[in-house]
């Protein structure tokens, strides 16, 4: 029975028509898979997949205090991006723990959109507004915004048929407003989370008919035969991100883990000045961390590490825990992420995962776990 608290995106009926298996995710009834996770995963790797990710959160921050606020809230340096560019970043608490990882869209000199994880919308909104200054305005546009993600090597060709925007000239982590499938003011960005070329389509439905969103989905899906395009659910989204080693909030990231421990030091710009959590992060940088997120690949076939499994030494001593684990659909081997002591989080190190009462070897490997040119 449907929970009255669960929301639905405008594409819900389309998901049902396509035979999707629906499950609760981030407060929404979302498609987990349509055909199979394997088939949808391979479609994205080889052609293109269309994801409904409208459950994600979108916050607008503007005003003369917007830039200082976003600088204080996030670890990356917003001064490094210009209007039309996107930045991956994290928000930390005062202890240096990760409140959320997010995308920062610079819409203008004093206007930003923060795209946050669905499960963290309420928490993030409360955190941001608690630090809001009088010269910065905040607006939660999550429920008015729909988001489709078209991912895969054919994504550019599929989308190019629906817009005059020259997609081939779009650099990674940039965005532009364009008319797509006859719909004006669609924000088209090129960020992606699958390791493939892809585009995200944000449509603000404020004062607009929700059928516009469904029409956008339909126009893209009309190209399924021409491009082997398939709808893809959140199950494939998870296996795709794990194959390229992208951490997932709630599994690999949380409020007790710092970005330096999570391998996100490259977006932790301590030189930019003070921001929330920076004092703790500076100490970690100077003194070193006691654990680091590492990738590993099982040495045997059909050995799948699951989230929560122990990571051990050969003698069975526990040294860590699997935070994300699955079967790599391309490699047909088990892969995973987990936190290890820094001296063991080194490429080539052998660790052991207890699976079915056996200690099975795995090799610490720097993601991404695959190179398509060598497959």
Question: Can you describe this structure?
Answer:
The chain contains nine helices and 19 strands. With 375 residues, it is an alpha+beta fold. Among the domains are: 12-53 and 143-242, Probable tRNA modification gtpase trme, domain 1 (Gyrase A, domain 2), CATH 3.30.1360; 290-368, Elongation Factor Tu (Ef-tu), domain 3 (Beta Barrel), CATH 2.40.30. The strands form four sheets. A six-stranded mixed β-sheet has the order 10-11-12-9-3-13, sandwiched between helices. Helix 2 (37-46) packs across helix 8. The mean pLDDT is 95.
List the SSEs and their pairings.
Elements: H1 12-17, E1 21-25, E2 28-33, H2 37-46, E3 48-52, E4 57-62, H3 66-73, E5 86-92, E6 98-108, E7 111-116, H4 121-130, E8 137-140, E9 145-151, H5 155-160, E10 175-180, E11 183-189, E12 198-204, H6 211-221, H7 224-227, E13 229-231, H8 234-243, H9 278-287, E14 292-301, E15 310-312, E16 318-328, E17 333-340, E18 350-355, E19 358-365
Parallel strand pairs: 3-13
Antiparallel strand pairs: 1-2, 3-9, 4-7, 4-8, 5-6, 6-7, 9-12, 10-11, 11-12, 14-17, 14-19, 15-16, 16-17, 18-19
């Amino acid at each position: 029975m449907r929970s009255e608290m669960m929301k639905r995106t405008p594409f819900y009926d389309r998901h049902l028509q396509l035979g999707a298996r629906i499950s609760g995710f981030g407060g929404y009834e979302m498609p987990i898979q349509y055909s199979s996770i394997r088939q949808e995963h391979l479609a994205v790797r080889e052609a293109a997949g269309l994801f409904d990710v409208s459950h994600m959160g979108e916050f607008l921050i503007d005003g003369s205090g917007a830039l200082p606020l976003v600088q204080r809230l996030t670890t990356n340096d917003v001064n490094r991006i210009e209007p039309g560019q996107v930045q991956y970043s994290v928000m930390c608490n005062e202890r240096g723990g990760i409140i959320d990882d997010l995308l920062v869209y610079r819409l203008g000199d004093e206007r930003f959109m923060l795209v946050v994880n669905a499960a963290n919308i309420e928490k993030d909104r409360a955190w941001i507004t608690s630090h809001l200054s009088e010269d910065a305005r905040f607006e939660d546009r999550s429920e008015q915004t729909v988001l489709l993600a078209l991912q895969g090597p054919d994504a550019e060709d599929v989308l190019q048929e629906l817009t005059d925007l020259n997609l081939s000239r779009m650099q990674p982590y940039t965005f532009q407003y364009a008319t797509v499938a006859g719909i004006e003011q669609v924000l088209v960005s090129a960020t992606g989370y699958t390791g493939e070329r892809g585009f995200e389509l944000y449509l603000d439905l404020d004062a607009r008919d929700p059928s516009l969103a469904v029409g956008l989905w339909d126009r893209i899906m009309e190209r399924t035969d021409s491009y082997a395009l398939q709808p893809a659910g959140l199950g494939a989204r998870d296996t795709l991100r794990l194959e390229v080693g992208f951490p997932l909030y709630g599994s690999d990231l949380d409020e007790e883990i710092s970005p330096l421990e999570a391998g996100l030091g490259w977006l932790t710009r301590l030189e930019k000045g003070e921001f929330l959590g920076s004092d703790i992060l500076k100490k970690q940088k100077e003194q070193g961390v006691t654990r680091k997120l590492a990738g590993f690949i099982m040495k045997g076939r059909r050995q799948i590490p699951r989230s929560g499994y122990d990571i051990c030494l050969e003698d069975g001593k526990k040294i860590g825990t699997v935070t994300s684990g699955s079967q790599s659909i391309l490699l047909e081997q088990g892969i995973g992420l987990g936190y290890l002591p820094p001296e063991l989080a080194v490429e080539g190190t052998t660790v052991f995962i207890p699976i079915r009462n056996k200690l099975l070897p795995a090799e610490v490997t720097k993601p991404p776990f695959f190179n398509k040119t060598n497959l």
